[in-house]
Amino acid sequence: MENQKNKVLLVEDDTNFGQVLKNYLELNDFVVELARDGILGLAAFRRERFDICLLDVMMPNMDGFTLAEEIRNVDPDVPLFFLSAKSMKDDILTGYKLGADDYITKPFDIEELKLRVQGAIRRSERESLTDPRSGLPAGRLIEEQLRRIIRETGWALLDIRINDFDAFHDVYGFVA
């Protein structure tokens, strides 16, 4: 199996700091898209899939807290970290209330950030083995089983998918 690099969305308005962090993560086998403000970060998030989002809090055009709310509306499960100079308890609590997996105050140790990012991605990958709504196997777990079964004789595969399941779920609920 090909070693796939994890994709990071880094939204940071400080050009120098953003570029240093991007370079460091890329040297450590991440693919990083750097956006300079919340609006550009949201556009990038809507355009492609990321394994984790690293968001500054204080940015022009759209702050990190607003961006986090928008990201959570699109994908409630993607790991999300705030990287901020705002270290007041209220700011940190706001970050966690918005669904942050971590809130790291600047300045921070860049190697520690890398390890926290790797840990959050690993946890996210483990959780994605089952569908959170049904508890049934999903994602990589299904793919691994399909690869094994396809090599055996006497099997056929029928793939049936339900489109717009969320709309059904919203109206009728999980039990239906």
Distance between the termini: 38 Å
Assign an overall shape: globular
- What is the count of DSSP helices, taking H or I runs of 4+ residues? 7
Strand count, sense and barrel status of the largest sheet are: 5 strands, parallel
The fraction of residues in strands falls at 5-15%
Segments where pLDDT lies below 50 for 5+ residues?
A: none
Q: What is the count of β-strands? A: 5
Helix content: 40-55%
Q: Summarize the helix and strand pattern as letters.
A: EHEHEHEHEHHH
C-alpha-based Rg, rounded: 19 Å
Architecture blueprint of SSEs:
Blueprint: E1 6-11, H1 15-27, E2 30-35, H2 38-47, E3 52-56, H3 64-74, E4 80-84, H4 89-97, E5 102-105, H5 110-127, H6 140-150, H7 165-172
Helix pairs in contact: 2-3
How does this structure look, described?
This protein has helices at residues 15-27, 38-47, 64-74, 89-97, 110-127, 140-150, 165-172, and strands at 6-11, 30-35, 52-56, 80-84, 102-105. By secondary structure, it is of the alpha/beta class. The N and C termini lie far apart (38 Å).
Q: Tags for this entry?
A:
five-stranded parallel sheet, 7 helices, 176 residues, 5 strands, alpha/beta
Provide a brief overview of the structure.
By secondary structure, this protein is an alpha/beta fold. The protein contains seven helices and five strands. It has helices at residues 15-27, 38-47, 64-74, 89-97, 110-127, 140-150, 165-172, and strands at residues 6-11, 30-35, 52-56, 80-84, 102-105.
